[in-house]
Specification:
By secondary structure, the chain is of the alpha/beta class. The chain has helices spanning 27-39, 50-59, 77-86, 101-109, 122-130, 146-160, 165-171, 176-184, and strands spanning 19-23, 43-47, 64-68, 70-71, 74-75, 91-96, 112-117. The chain is elongated, with a radius of gyration of 18 Å.
Length: 189
């Protein structure tokens, strides 16, 4: 049983092992999210890189993890895969500021239970970590626009072509320079 005096309204507490590893290279975000998740009943440990995250897994494989996709020393999916090998029942959330469908699919295949775009707040993360499997996810208030769906499709093909711009452009019947301009822009809303 958890021994926390502070509970937040309408937020369930983690049941069983409340250990959580939070990995992000954005130090202010890491500190804010760590405090917020601690207040929600998790026992939080933090890491700012893949190397320190993998090292933390060697000491103790947590029941929960929140991992940033792009870290200064590599891809956060490496930590997801390592955690799933060490503790298959771990509930992992992947956070990213560069969301696309291809990486979300890869994250889920590696064992992540959800994939959240930044800026995600602690309530979103907690809800995703504690959501029981089998619960139907509600339709978002603002679903992806047609421009975003197109961008996601281009990103998926780009990933499937091993990030080869020329091959992606050929498969999409698109001029290579046009594709490069699209890839250089941020994702539409």
């Amino acid at each position: 049983m958890l021994e926390h005096t502070m509970t937040l309204p309408d937020m369930p507490l983690p049941v069983g092992d409340p250990s959580l590893l939070l990995i992000d290279d954005d130090k202010p975000f890491l500190q804010r999210m760590s405090r917020a998740l601690d207040q929600r009943g998790f026992r939080v440990s933090t890491a700012e890189s893949i190397a320190s995250g993998l090292s933390a897994l060697e000491d103790h494989a947590p029941a929960h993890a929140v991992v940033d996709m792009r870290l200064s020393d590599g891809n956060g999916l490496d930590v997801v895969a390592a955690l799933q090998r060490k503790r298959p029942d771990a509930r992992v959330i992947v956070l990213t500021g560069y969301g696309n469908i291809a990486t979300a699919v890869t994250a889920v295949k590696l064992g992540a239970i959800d994939y959240l775009a930044k800026p995600a707040d602690a309530d979103d993360v907690t809800a995703a970590l504690l959501r029981c499997s089998g619960i139907k996810v509600e339709l978002p208030d603002n679903p992806m626009s047609a421009d975003r769906v197109r961008w996601e499709h281009i990103q998926r093909v780009y990933e499937l072509c091993d990030r080869n711009v020329s091959e992606t452009a050929r498969r999409l019947s698109m001029h290579r320079r046009t594709l490069q301009r699209i890839l250089a822009k941020r994702a539409p809303r």
